[in-house]
Amino acid sequence: MKPNIKIPDFNDVPFIVIWELTRACDLHCLHCRAEAQTERHHYELSTEEGKALIDDIADMEYPMLVFTGGDPLMREDVFELAEYAVMKNVRVSMTPSATPNVTKEAMQKAKDVGLSRWAFSLDGHNKDIHDHFRGTSGSFDITMKAINYLNELEMPLQINTVISNYNIDYLEEMKEMVMKLNCVLWSVFFLVPTGRGKNEDMITPVQHEQVFRWLNKIKDEVPFDIKTTAAQHYRRVVIQDQMRKNKADKEMQIRYLDALDQGKTGTIDGLGRAPKGVNDGNGFVFISHIGHVYPSGLLPVNCGNVRVDKLSNIYRQSPILQNLRNPDKYNGKCGVCEFRHVCGGSRSRAYAATGDYMESEPYCVYIPKALRKKKTTMTS
User: Fold this and answer.
1) Are residues 251 and 370 in the same domain?
2) Are 363 and 341 within one domain?
3) Run means of pLDDT, 10 residues per run, the chain, 380 residues
4) The whole model's pTM is what?
């Protein structure tokens, strides 16, 4: 029996707001969408501007706020901002870079101010793969040490992993390692060629499908929850599997909740997972270090600036974001796909590949029913 969940209207409020506090970072990741620099930008949003942004997010009630970068720990006011957000009843989590800034003292401070979760990136099951991908020797060891600190402090841990040609052959090893780290959520990212990300680092469309099926297979075997980023078509794979298992249920519809089994924590959104499908600009919005509003950090199309207008106004009124929230307007096979309202494909990858964020997901192998019927009609 499905829990009774408040379903937000994504035309009115986002579910997740990502704020890039700074682009400063000491790592040199091969895939960095921010193309991070060693120094902070002079025009970053100030502390007071950040608090005004948090006020607006709090007024929208629903969103979860994620501090990212660069490295958010490069800002001296990061915990002041986090404490202010918590005081405003905004759920806050953070994704710091694995650098010497990640100390046990910093984690204790995060816990004291009320951060709901801390996320670390692990992109390989050993230091050779991870450090190469992160462009920094010693990053793996710092990450593992920091995770031990986090577990000592009993703070919820999220592991982020970018799937690429560097680690595609070691997914079983990655799963075994993540199982030992006492994490609550494994967030599996699929590379989008933006920033420093390169096409040649991406896995193939067929490999995307293979990884989706593997994730669907292991999701009931592991002690943590799994979600994907820039891989909306994983939802389609999960729903197809549910539909195969429920052949006798002729009333079964294509619904996002069928792709989101009740979480290990006992509530569907207990880990901050949306109760319906999130996509770029559709339940999801990104604020850059200088206040630009994008559908996501991987889709760098400017929709406005929070120094000029409130985030809530930009989110609701931007024609770009309104288009992204209407899957019936998508082009190509995504626009006619029966899964478009729960999947929709990665708008970021469509933009990176074609220059049009409304185009079809280029790394999806699925042929929609409408196109299969059309082909059958033409050949009969």
Assistant:
1) no
2) yes
3) 60 95 84 75 96 97 89 94 96 88 91 88 93 88 93 92 94 96 94 85 96 95 92 91 74 64 44 69 96 96 98 98 97 95 94 96 94 66
4) 0.90
